[in-house]
């Protein structure tokens, strides 16, 4: 899922965050002397419902299928099933899947209520990529899941229907329900990563993520590419830049490269890192970069949600933990208004 507008056209988090099969972590250059490291110099509950609301049976969503170059119209329920199937593993705990269904519904309702179609072709309301929410249809699910299709789709459908008609609101308005894969142990303030402050998107501890297979990662970049992508020159000193600021979520805020200051987000984007919580060291002509977490870090951590569910928390507990001060609200009137306008 992509970050929210207006300050970003909603990337990577997911985002926010889309879940992919984790690659095997390899620790190259484990032996031998390392020269040049990243230094640091800081200066300062509703009843369970297994039926779909009438509104979710009548509201259609026009999804632009980016790879196919065409618009596919599906019911709101089918859209939500397709988003949860694409964004979260079906073998996650049921309460985590419900939390994901609730965020997915909140996201699309927010777009419909605000008539937000930025970045999608005429006639579409949303696309199926990380710039909005990743979506797959039944044919995609059958191809991806094979013999597991029946039980996986049923499990996700049950999660969608258990939260039917519910959205997350703050002061009566649908929230910007951003989410991502894995934190570094903390979520991030929205203003620390994107610049816009949302009262419900504040940093909280997320210790469950340490069990995620995506918690640690490592990447090797040549010195030449590192310099070119960041627009810096590395000298022969003992450090490669100095961290001069950290965020509330304990990620890199700013790095000073001999007078040129880059944000942790800029560095993450330019080097295509999994997280803005990183360290690095130089070995010969290579820079070895280690990261903690996967995604932008703002909003709900998916692996954190699964960890909370494993400890007995329900989906209401989960969303209210990651989105501070929100309410779970019935969206029937909003959906009815949307239907009436068609």
From TrEMBL:
- What domain of life does the UniProt record list for this protein's source? Bacteria
Question: Start and end of every Sporulation stage II protein D amidase enhancer LytB N-terminal domain?
Answer: 67-170
Its recorded name reads Stage II sporulation protein D
């Amino acid at each position: 899922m992509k970050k929210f507008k207006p300050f970003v056209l909603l990337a990577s988090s997911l985002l926010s965050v889309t879940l992919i099969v984790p690659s095997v972590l390899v620790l190259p250059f484990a032996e031998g002397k390392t020269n040049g490291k990243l230094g640091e110099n800081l200066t300062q509950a509703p009843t369970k419902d297994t039926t779909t609301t009438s509104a979710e049976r009548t509201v259609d969503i026009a999804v632009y299928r980016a790879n196919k170059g065409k618009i596919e119209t599906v019911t709101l329920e089918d859209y939500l099933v397709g988003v949860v199937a694409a964004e979260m593993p079906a073998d996650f705990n049921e309460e985590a899947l419900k939390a994901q269904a609730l965020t997915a519904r909140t996201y699309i309702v927010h777009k419909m209520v605000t008539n937000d179609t930025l970045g999608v072709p005429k006639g579409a309301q949303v696309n199926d990529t990380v710039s909005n929410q990743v979506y797959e249809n039944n044919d995609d699910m059958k191809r991806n899941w094979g013999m597991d299709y029946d039980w996986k789709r049923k499990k996700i459908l049950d999660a969608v229907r258990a939260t039917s008609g519910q959205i997350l609101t703050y002061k009566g308005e649908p929230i910007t329900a951003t989410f991502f894969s894995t934190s570094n142990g903390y979520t991030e303030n929205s203003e620390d990563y994107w610049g816009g402050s949302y009262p419900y998107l504040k940093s909280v501890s997320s210790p469950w993520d340490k069990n995620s297979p995506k918690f640690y990662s490592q990447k090797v970049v040549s010195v030449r590419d590192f310099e070119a992508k960041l627009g810096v020159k590395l000298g022969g000193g003992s450090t490669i830049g100095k961290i001069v600021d950290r965020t509330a979520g304990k990620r890199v805020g700013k790095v000073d490269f001999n007078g040129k200051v880059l944000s942790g987000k800029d560095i993450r984007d330019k080097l295509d890192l999994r997280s803005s919580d990183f360290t690095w060291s130089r070995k010969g002509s290579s820079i070895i970069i280690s990261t903690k977490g996967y995604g932008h870090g703002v909003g709900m951590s998916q692996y954190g949600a699964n960890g909370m569910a494993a400890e007995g928390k329900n989906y209401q507990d989960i969303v209210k933990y990651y989105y501070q001060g929100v309410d779970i609200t019935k969206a029937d009137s909003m959906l009815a208004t949307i239907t009436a306008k068609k």
